[in-house]
């Protein structure tokens, strides 16, 4: 049955006389929620950013308007499965009351440990209880030390490329997605700090900044390296108004497009 409020009535009728002997009605609520599906960090991936952005597709089907998300992260022990870690291990980091399908880990939070695997999932909460949960995914955190001073990738154990255009310490970066979403990040300061994963190994890209009415603001060419790429997009020379919504579109030479919506923080005295 579709989600909604229903009244279910039972009536007892004598078959011969068709006389109604009893009647009772009960109000019920059907509120099935489709669990959220996880997007990033991808399952089994290796990441190095100190404040990664956790992304997931929102739940669907609820008739309640006050549902929120809970992010649950635990450390996975040696020879332990992620689902077992979630069930038995204490929280490495857990937070509730998230209203949008994304969460950026704080730079002031407990730092991730090098070469440590973590399991995570998203729960949907309503009336102080969990009514739906996502599958459990895992990722391994490694320090971003796979790039030389000249920007040439250094080979580490497994010969895996970790990052090109590496992140600067102390800067929280926002993740760009290949789908234009409704979520908007808040920029504090005079630069939009973003990162993306260059899976196509292209070298040339161009970004465009527009306001919410699709009015062109600025553009520039950038160079990409393989793997993770971190950028600081300067905003101080642009006519970016506080609280107004803008978006940046990154066009790769292959035609792939990445997006991020942003607005500047409104400073109050």
What does this structure look like?
The chain is an all-beta fold and 269 residues long. The protein folds into 2 domains: 105 residues, Immunoglobulins (Immunoglobulin-like, Sandwich); 103 residues, Immunoglobulin-like, CATH 2.60.40.3110. It contains 1 helix and 19 strands. Strand 18 and strand 19 form a beta hairpin. It is globular, with a radius of gyration of 24 Å. About 6% of the residues have low confidence.
Task: Spell out the blueprint of helices and strands.
Blueprint: E1 4-13, E2 20-30, E3 37-40, E4 45-47, E5 53-57, E6 68-75, H1 82-88, E7 93-98, E8 102-104, E9 116-126, E10 129-133, E11 137-141, E12 174-175, E13 184-187, E14 191-198, E15 204-211, E16 216-223, E17 227-234, E18 246-252, E19 257-264
Parallel strand pairs: 4-11, 12-14, 13-19
Antiparallel strand pairs: 1-2, 3-5, 5-8, 6-7, 6-9, 9-10, 9-11, 14-17, 15-16, 15-18, 18-19
Using brief descriptors, characterize the structure shown.
2 domains, mainly beta, Immunoglobulin-like, globular
Brief digest:
With 269 residues, the protein is mainly beta.
CA gyration radius, whole angstroms: 24 Å
Order of helices and strands: EEEEEEHEEEEEEEEEEEEE
Strand percentage, roughly? Answer: over 45%
Overall residue-averaged pLDDT value? 81
The shape is globular
CATH hierarchy, class of the largest domain: Mainly Beta
Q: Indicate the percent of residues in helices.
A: under 10%
CATH topology of the largest domain: Immunoglobulin-like
Largest sheet: 6 strands, mixed
Termini separation: 53 Å
CATH superfamily of the largest domain: Immunoglobulins
Given helix and strand content, the structural type is: mainly beta
Number of structural domains: 2
Poorly predicted ranges: 146-162
Which architecture name of the largest domain does CATH use?
A: Sandwich
Number of helices: 1
DSSP strand count: 19
């Amino acid at each position: 049955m579709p989600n909604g409020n229903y009244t279910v009535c039972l009536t007892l009728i004598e078959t011969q006389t068709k006389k109604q002997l009893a009647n009772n009605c009960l109000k019920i609520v059907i509120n099935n929620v489709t669990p959220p599906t996880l997007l990033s960090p991808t399952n089994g991936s290796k990441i190095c950013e100190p404040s990664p952005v956790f992304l997931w597709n929102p739940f669907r089907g609820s008739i309640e308007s006050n549902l929120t998300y809970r992010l649950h992260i635990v450390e996975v022990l040696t020879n332990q499965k992620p689902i077992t870690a979630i069930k038995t291990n204490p929280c490495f980091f857990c937070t509730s009351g998230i209203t949008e399908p994304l969460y950026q880990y704080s730079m002031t939070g407990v730092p991730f440990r090098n070469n440590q695997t973590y399991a995570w999932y998203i729960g949907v909460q309503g009336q102080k209880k969990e009514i739906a949960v996502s599958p459990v995914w895992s990722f391994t955190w490694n320090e971003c030390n796979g790039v030389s001073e000249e920007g040439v990738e250094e080979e580490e154990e497994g010969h895996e490329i970790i990052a090109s255009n590496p992140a600067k310490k102390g800067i929280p970066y926002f993740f760009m997605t290949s789908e234009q979403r409704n979520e908007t990040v808040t920029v504090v300061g005079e630069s939009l700090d973003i990162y993306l994963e260059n899976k196509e190994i292209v070298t040339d890209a161009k970004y465009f900044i527009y306001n919410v009415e699709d009015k062109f603001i600025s553009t520039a060419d950038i160079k990409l390296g393989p793997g993770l790429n971190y950028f600081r997009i300067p905003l101080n020379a642009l006519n970016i108004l506080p609280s107004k919504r803008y978006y940046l579109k990154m066009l790769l030479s292959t035609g792939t497009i990445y997006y991020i919506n942003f607005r500047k923080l409104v400073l109050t005295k």
